[in-house]
């Protein structure tokens, strides 16, 4: 029996020609779009292309990614054609000190698409995990009854930045890596067509990145841009009691009091002081006394 990409008609391969036609003309476009059947990591591939001189605006999509990485170098794999795994190459005009916002901007773009096309009330867990409401009991002490549906990883390479996005689409519960994850199918999305969702995400990403660049290069500042306001509005971490796991094995519990103009999470500690976190693993804590 054939085991080609069209064997499972519920998980068809993406069509490069159709995506290029849809996303290379008009507003919110990308310079070039490539679809590959399989690769280890779209981020690693685009970083190599950036180092070889590739211009901004390239998108690389893999129907199967067998060596993907999440934050802190964690492995991330999914069944072939069950998710959207792709990366985009940027050469930002924004000052390098604002680049920390780029992955947050990407998170806003993903929520734009999930709300508009999928009908899901998506939110963000700082810094850039995309969450949707659980359709059944959620694991205790995670994120207020919400589960992770997408993750984002940004990597700088000289004057270039590569942003990778992994969005779960048709996985069932047995195919998810952790109990705190979900997929569009399990969340009750209005569509699980990967082509439709991908187009919506890439258009939203182009639009939000353009908005960010205009704000920064005209002097408004990253933290005062419209996309930063949208991030704060959609960030479910703000206002929650959280446990932050910091580098070096340090743990802090406090109230997430906001996100500052540098994209850092402001953690109000029990003694009343505030710590600005640039990097941490954050868990939303339902019962602070058991953290």
Characterize the structure shown.
The longest helix is centred in the last third of the chain and has 24 residues, at 194-217. By secondary structure, the chain is of the alpha+beta class. Helix 3 (102-116) crosses helix 5 and helix 3 (102-116) packs across helix 6. It has 2 domains: 16-233, Bira Bifunctional Protein, Domain 2 (BirA Bifunctional Protein, domain 2, 2-Layer Sandwich), CATH 3.30.930; 238-290, SH3 type barrels. The protein has helices spanning 16-23, 42-51, 102-116, 184-187, 194-217, 226-234; strands spanning 32-36, 58-62, 68-69, 75-76, 83-90, 123-125, 129-133, 146-157, 160-168, 241-246, 250-259, 265-268, 274-277, 281-284. The chain is built from 6 helices and 14 strands. Strands 1-2-5-9-8-7-6 form a 7-stranded mixed β-sheet, sandwiched between helices. A 5-stranded antiparallel β-sheet has the order 13-12-11-10-14, with no helix packed on it. A two-stranded antiparallel ribbon has the order 3-4. Strand 6 (123-125) and strand 7 form a beta hairpin. It is an enzyme of class 6 (ligase). Pfam families: BPL_C, BPL_LplA_LipB. Keywords: Biotin, Ligase. This is biotin--[biotin carboxyl-carrier protein] ligase.
Please outline the helices and strands.
Elements: H1 16-23, E1 32-36, H2 42-51, E2 58-62, E3 68-69, E4 75-76, E5 83-90, H3 102-116, E6 123-125, E7 129-133, E8 146-157, E9 160-168, H4 184-187, H5 194-217, H6 226-234, E10 241-246, E11 250-259, E12 265-268, E13 274-277, E14 281-284
Helix pairs in contact: 3-5, 3-6
């Amino acid at each position: 029996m054939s085991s080609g990409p069209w064997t499972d008609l519920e998980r068809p391969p993406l069509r490069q020609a159709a995506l290029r036609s849809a996303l290379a003309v008009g507003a919110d476009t990308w310079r070039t779009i490539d679809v590959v059947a399989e690769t280890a990591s779209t981020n690693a591939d685009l970083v190599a292309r950036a180092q070889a001189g590739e211009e901004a605006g390239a998108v690389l999509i893999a129907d199967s990614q067998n060596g993907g990485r999440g934050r802190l170098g964690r492995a991330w794999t999914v069944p072939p054609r069950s998710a959207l795994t792709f990366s985009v190459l940027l050469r930002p005009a924004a000052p390098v000190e604002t680049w920390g916002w780029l992955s947050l901007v990407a998170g806003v773009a993903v929520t734009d698409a999930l709300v508009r096309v999928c009908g899901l009330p998506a939110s963000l867990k700082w810094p850039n995990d995309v969450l949707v409401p659980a359709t059944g009991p959620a694991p205790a002490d995670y994120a207020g009854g919400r589960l992770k549906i997408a993750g984002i990883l940004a990597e700088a390479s000289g004057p270039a930045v590569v942003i990778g996005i992994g969005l779960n689409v048709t996985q069932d519960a047995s195919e998810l890596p952790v109990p705190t994850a979900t997929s569009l199918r399990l969340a009750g999305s209005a569509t699980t067509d990967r082509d439709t969702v991908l187009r919506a995400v890439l258009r939203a990403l182009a639009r939000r990145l353009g908005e960010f660049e205009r704000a920064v290069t005209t002097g408004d500042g990253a933290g005062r841009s419209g996309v930063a306001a949208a991030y704060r509005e959609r960030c479910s971490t703000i206002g929650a009691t959280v446990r932050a796991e910091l580098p070096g094995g340090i743990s802090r519990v406090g109230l997430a009091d906001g996100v500052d103009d540098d994209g850092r999470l402001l953690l109000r500690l029990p003694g009343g002081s505030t710590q600005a976190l640039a990097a941490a693993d954050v868990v939303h804590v339902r019962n602070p006394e058991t953290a």
